[in-house]
Amino acid sequence: MIKDEKNDPMETQTETKGSTVNGRKESVYKKPLDLDDVLTNELGQFGWYQKRNILLVAIPMIFSSFINEFIFSAAATPHRCRISECGEDGKSHVYDPDWILNAVPESASGFASCERYVSSNPGTNGTLDYCPVNLFDKSSTTGCDGFVYAKDNTVVYDFDLGCQEWLRAFAGTMSSIGTLLVLPITGYISDRYGRRFALIISVFNLGLFGLIRAFSVNYPMYLALHLIQTTLGSGTYSSSYIFGNYLNCSNMLLFHFNIKL
């Protein structure tokens, strides 16, 4: 005699519960992990903690921009030949006196920067206020033996670079080379000693070599210190950017875009 088998309610409930639990575990396991969702749910939105760290990260980022000050300090400066026949013996005289076209050829921008008229009366000199045209031979020109500058707050004035345009622009070349060299150096320090140490040492180098560069006694020294400062100090920006990258922000892409600007 065959006995009919009936489902046990307790057994059915257990199996259903087990499948539900297993299904839940399986769905959790298969769900992709979203870092932004985890940070938002666990830490909350952009609050005081994030704002405080943004301000702290912004300070070294502002300092890192000082490396690019050469754009202003080594900018092209209007200059002309120094006219010793008219009493000029330095580089800080009036840039455009009334008699300037008597001694310097005229150009589209006003007067020439790198040439002057040849003196016609070597034994006769004028003054800073009066320098007549008969002192010069306007049929021939020659190069400058010195320069007078329109501004006195640039590297061009300090080191008397004058018409050496390639030498003036070499500061930008040193900056580009240093920016290239800093990447492996900062990366190695960050991996070995941590990003915080990399940021601290970069800020220190940025300030130290920038201060020394301000007291350069010649242009080669200025260029060498600019290269060292960029190589050892421009990691300030990249280290600060990485710190800002880990802050929880609901508009992270907008935040990164603003930092990059």
From TrEMBL:
Q: Where is the composition biased (Polar residues)?
A: 10-22
Gene3D superfamilies on file: MFS general substrate transporter like domains
- Transmembrane annotation, as ranges: 54-75, 166-185, 197-219
Q: Which UniProt keywords apply?
A: Membrane, Transmembrane, Transmembrane helix
Q: How does it sit in the membrane?
A: Multi-pass membrane protein
Q: Name one GO molecular function term.
A: transmembrane transporter activity
Q: Where is this region: Disordered?
A: 1-23
Superkingdom to which the source organism belongs:
Eukaryota
Main subcellular location of this protein, as a coarse class? membrane
GO cellular component entries: membrane
Where is this gene product found? Membrane
Q: What's the protein called, per UniProt? A: Jg23260 protein
Query: Which organism is this protein's natural source?
Result: Pararge aegeria aegeria
Q: What is the lineage of its organism?
A: Eukaryota, Metazoa, Ecdysozoa, Arthropoda, Hexapoda
